[in-house]
Amino acid sequence: MRLFWKVFLLLLLTLLATAGLSSWLGQKWLAENQAIESRLNNMANQGEAAASLFEMEDPRAFRRWLHQTVRSQGFHGALVDAQGEQPPHRPLPPEMQGLLQQVMEKKQRVSIVNPPMLAVALPVELEDKTYYWLAISMMTQEELKQGGRDLRIIQLLSAVLIIALLSWLLTRMFTRPIRQLQLNSLQLAAGFFTTRTPQSLSSRKDELGDLARSFDHMAEALEGLVNSHKQIIRDISHELRSPLARLQVALELARNVAGDSAADELDRIGIEAERLNDLIGEVLTLARFEQGAVQPQNEPLELHEILQTLIEDADFEAEAMGKKVSPLLIEACTITGDPLWISRALDNVIRNAIRHTRESGSVEVALHNRDGNALITVRDFGEGVDEKLLTDLFDPFFRASAARERHNTKQASGYGLGLAIAKRAIELHHGTIVARNHQQGGLEVIISLPVS
Known about the structure:
The chain is 58% helix and 17% strand. It is built from 11 helices and 11 strands. It starts with a helix and ends with a strand.
């Protein structure tokens, strides 16, 4: 069923329910008004009988009748002469004095409905005399519960309840699938290309179902494109290995034949071939992570010892570029992980920092054991990275800007794979890695790994 018909039927049902409830409550309110009017008329009709008895009978008989009538019909009555006095000159109750004043001024019937009080007053003409009949009745608690005011409150609350129910149904109809699509979109944007909408959403026969199916088709197409892209990179990398190996063999033969006459040129070719071999190796490593083919060989590791060794090796190489790697506080930490991939990840981060720190600058490395996690910070003293690009640093083949390469004069720039491999190796060990610009300049990479 299309959304139009769902909304139409829901609104129609709500309208019918509201109309039915209003009609039922209106009938109850009308019946209550009729009962009140009948009660007022009954009290008013006693006026002529009271005046006649007062004229025809003695005062004692009149009071006896009045007392019996009051008890049987449940109201208080009083007969007042034209001067506003109650024979035989008894004072009126306070609640009747205001009623008497109104009827004497208007010279016609006055009715007051002010729950729980019902009151009526009217002039009674008897021959050449004028009397005023006053009657007051108090409604019981049961009558008040069934009164018009309560009915109006019930009607209002019922309307609010129906509107709230309609709002909840509309919200459930629209926002739940929209939020589900939003969640799936975020998952797809995060790189989970196997994300699909739930069957309950994609099987709907309305526009939201169409949107869910379109999303699934888009996700399927993206997954196919990305997988094809990865497969092409893997295939090309494998295919390049063989001609690269032949090139290195031919290079050694050429060295033997040429001797010293072309040593510089051949050395340069050898360096470029080695760089190409490193690039192919990193691409294949990244491809193994993407395929889920990397299975860590976990064992207890003294992380502080591994980090100290990496710092010493990196500092030795950094000296050739006029830079240094400085260890700050290195606390003892034991983790469970694969020594190969932990070392590879940390080494990639440290070497990336050396590459981008300024000449004669340093790279600061620290290790802290905090709240069950090993926190490793690696800070360079380079130009930093645009805030908008920080999350992209760990994407394959990503390079932040030329400014990051400005101080890299004695070493070839990276391929944009080191941090990507480091991220996947850290995540393989249930850790996290983030980058941020340090307040005092440079880029700081923070790695968190669970401590054993």
